[in-house]
Design a protein that fits this description.
The protein is α/β, with parallel strands linked by helices. The protein folds into 2 domains: 96 residues, Fe-S cluster assembly (FSCA) (GMP Synthetase, Chain A, domain 3, 2-Layer Sandwich); 91 residues, no CATH class. It has 5 helices and 7 strands, in the order ααββαβαβαβββ. The N and C termini lie far apart (42 Å).
């Protein structure tokens, strides 16, 4: 008996915890070893008395091409388990951050050959800005990195564990990743950039 038939047959109420568990099985379409829950895309789950379920998701960045695929996968996963009414909401604020990724998800990335984010997202509000204010924020960030206010991330090679790595391109196989190479084992790898 499948999950949908079991829910219908017993008349059991689905809990938010059960929905979270089901969603933890929904793989990210770009990185199939990590779930949308581990990635931090699923922000909230609410189950109403009648069994209707509302799931709030936040894209990794606005315009992410995988969001429709993720939305469909979330809806399909819940409908397959007997939830007839699924309301999917997209929440853009606060913006998604790699800080929302689970430690288990980061370990799965590393096991898959992708270096996980090397640091938490930096709050830039108190840092010195460039001469022309907000318009020159990038120059201000570079100056803050140079003077040591922001450390460059130490990206560890997921293949050999060396921190002797080098960025070869700010853009990897997807916009969320950068391309690195290890200077010890010489293997190239993707790095999941901090956002």
């Amino acid at each position: 008996m499948n999950a949908a038939a079991a829910v219908a047959a017993t008349g059991a109420a689905v809990t938010a915890e059960q929905v979270w568990a089901w969603l933890a099985e929904v793989a990210d379409p770009e990185i199939p070893v990590i779930s949308v829950v581990d990635l931090g895309i699923v922000r909230d789950v609410a189950v109403a008395e009648g069994g209707a379920c509302t799931v709030t998701i936040t894209p990794t960045y606005s315009g992410c091409p995988a969001m429709q695929v993720i939305a469909d996968a979330v809806t399909d996963a819940l409908r397959e388990r007997g939830i007839a009414q699924v309301d999917l909401r997209t929440q853009l604020s606060p913006a998604w951050t790699t800080d929302w990724m689970s430690e288990e998800g980061k370990a799965k990335l590393k096991g898959y050959g992708i270096a996980p984010p090397a640091q938490q997202v930096v709050d830039i509000s108190g840092l010195r800005r460039g001469a022309s204010g907000t318009a020159d924020l990038a120059a201000g960030l570079r100056a803050n990195i140079k003077r040591g206010a922001i450390a460059r991330p130490k990206v560890v090679c997921p293949h050999c564990g060396s921190s002797h790595t080098e960025n070869t391109s700010q853009f990897g196989s997807t916009p969320c990743k950068a391309l690195y190479k290890c200077l010890d084992c010489r293997e190239p790898f993707d790095y999941f950039k901090c956002h």
